[in-house]
Amino acid sequence: MVLGFVGLITVTMLAYRNAPPLPEQVLGATGNTIFTGDDVREGQTVFLKCGLMANGSIWGHGAYLGSDFSAEALHRLGEHQAQAVALQRFGRAYASLNPVEQAAVNGETAATLETNRYDPTSLALRFTDAEAAAYTQLSTRVCRCDPAASWSARVAGNGISVVNSYLYDTMVKRYVLQIIFPKGEGGKPDRAVIDAALAEMPTQFAALDKAYGRGDYLAGASCSSADLLLAPILAYVQFMPEAGQLMADYPNLVRAQNLIRQRASFTSTNPQ
Known about the structure:
By secondary structure, this protein is mainly alpha-helical. The chain has twelve helices and six strands. The protein has a four-stranded mixed sheet. A hairpin with a 4-residue loop joins strand 5 and strand 6.
């Protein structure tokens, strides 16, 4: 056991000591600023504050929970760089090249991406034009969206993670259980906790309503584990007068839940 802990401590120390540097600015090929170190640190804060590790992963850790963001970013960088090299060397898109030409492009792309363009003196990292284009595309896809749209994308793609990380906390722990098993002063429900949960529900209901607006189920044409996990939570919520009234304002959500409740598995275990 002692050797095990020594090993863990050593690996942790080496991980921090050998961690890649965080550039204070990332520049384009012409010297324009693409993003800064402060942007990276702010993104890390949001990632941790919102518990987004439950919806994806960085460097493969917990990838079973959702998309591997680092792998996707590297993939996009490779695609853009290969396309740029193909157009520069052969004047054609990468997909139209023959196998020999694609192999040549792949080799040059790998060499380009492996080149370290970080300057430890100025603390600046320089992107190629292709890398800058890939970053812009990724930023446009995952950022600058309204809360409901962001929620809907997460619900459709990572339904189980969203239910466990967000909906269960709001609707069950801080609402239903606060009413059924009150922990407030004098054994009464804690209204401050309940009211805070109720205030969050409209945003979550709106996101679910938008997701169910595409069809009867969250993740496609058939019922998924995410739908089945969500159904009993919403059933309990609807039993409660305040949240039940709030949920009634979202017709797609109500329609989808009514459909789920017709299933034999639900009727035989109806949480009434």
